[in-house]
Amino acid sequence: MIHIVTSKNRHLYARQLQEMHQLRRLHFIEENGWTDLKVVDGGEVDQFDDDLAVYLLGLGPDDEIEVGLRVRSTLDGCILTDAFPHMIAQGAPELKGAEAWEMSRIFSTHAYRKNRRGGRRVAEAFLAAMEVAFAHGARRLVGMVDMRLYPLASNIAWDLKLTGLPAPYAFGVMAGVYAPIGASEIARLRESLGGLSAAGYEVEDEDIALCGDFQGIENQFRRANAAVRPMVEMDEGPHAIAEAAALYAYFDGRRAAQSEKTRTDA
Amino acid sequence: MSSIESLSWAFLSEAPEHRDLRVLEAHFLRTLEIFGFDRYCCTRLSGLRMADVPTIVSRHGFIDWDQRYWRERYIEQDPCSDWISANRTGFTWTDVREAAPAAAAGMWQDALAEGLANAFVVQMPGPIGEKIVLRMASPTSRFDLAHRPLLESVGVVFATLAVRLHEMAGDRPGPGLLSTREAECLEWVALGKSDWEIGAILDISPKTVNHHVERAKRKLDVSTRMQAVTAALRQGLIRPVIG
Known about the structure:
Chain A has helices at about 15-30, 80-85, 110-115, 120-135, 150-155, 185-190, 205-210, 215-230, 240-265; strands at about 1-5, 40, 45, 55-60, 65-75, 100-110, 140-145, 160, 165-170, 170-180, 200. By secondary structure, chain A is of the alpha+beta class. Chain A folds into two domains: about 1-235, Gcn5-related N-acetyltransferase (GNAT) (Aminopeptidase, 3-Layer(aba) Sandwich); about 235-265. In chain A, strands 1, 4, 5, 6, 7, 8, 9, 10 and 11 form a nine-stranded mixed β-sheet that branches. A two-stranded antiparallel ribbon of chain A has the order 2-3. Chain A is globular, with a radius of gyration of 21 Å. In chain B, a hairpin with a 5-residue loop joins strand 4 (about 120-125) and strand 5. Chain B has eleven helices and five strands.
């Protein structure tokens, strides 16, 4: 589950939002060299961290942030089109306006990456971004990607396209990107994640009252998804992979036996 | 836009539409030539040790040098290995030689004898946790530093797409409507596995899994994975594994 943090439920996420801004400082300023960004109280903050910003957070077992990103309408501003117009080629679709929402400040933590769980959680966050933007009438997500991470970003079941020529920025090479959003795009990404009915959830005060805490809400969310597809194993840990490997060995055995039988019959 | 920029943009914007690895390779080679490079080798390092022999994803004109490299066991002294292990990317052989002038002198001489005066090396995370390394080589040692970001981007996009098309090229026609990979992927979908899980099991990228499943859906003329599994089971194209 990806937590959708809006201006309505930010009071529930005071600790996580503080942590998010600190992680943004660590990731973007200290590690990636984006030194033109502003730091307030130890956290990175910009002009788009306002009431319209929607934060999408993937939390770990202790409610610590594993992945985070910001998604926001571009009606009154867009980092890509306003600050990096040289990264937009002629013929690119409308990247700012009612139909475009922008993803920015996308990161995953070292602790999360160390678990070698690939990009699944990040893909869930992108799916949640699609869901939120689509619900607000957007038809495309725009953003910027460090070219070193392009292979991971394009490994997700969406149709990611460059907006123009990449250009050097700080320690890396950055490029503008966009992906169309629609019911079929969302359905495809949900299916690729194992048949999720949704990735994002906007927690309300009543949820906390009913479930106790974020972990309780996530458990309910997991059960709701499992109810949609009863055979699904949600666990992505070593146990699930080992179980899958055992089943795969079973397939191999069956195939080998079948080939042997075919050969004997012939 | 300069001609290098416009040809690079042509590659970056058109390459994702290529469905055939050979078409992609030819387009990439044409683009490389404008930077003064005439051969390349894209490898997948799935082992944890640099000394593990990599899987060749795509190459042009690197065969002789690669054979010599492994025959002479240059991996044991190649300073580029340290740069790759340290996750440095977008570096040239000139950078490496300048940092360690005395290292592997024999290797550099042999490379020159093979017509490899300089190379630009790009590395990136692979789809299933491995490393993808792309070496682009030039017969001359000159390389315009201003073009590094562009060449790096062209290299990253090529390697990303080449890995995927290389994985798909390993697919074979099945006994029925579905290819072997399409059937395999659907069997795992039937067990509720995500593209990430199926990719880990079959040792292919999640996007390749997605491609196989989407193609199976089109062949079966259905719009969801559940419908695809049901249709494939009914037609005997996949086998139920539980029950």
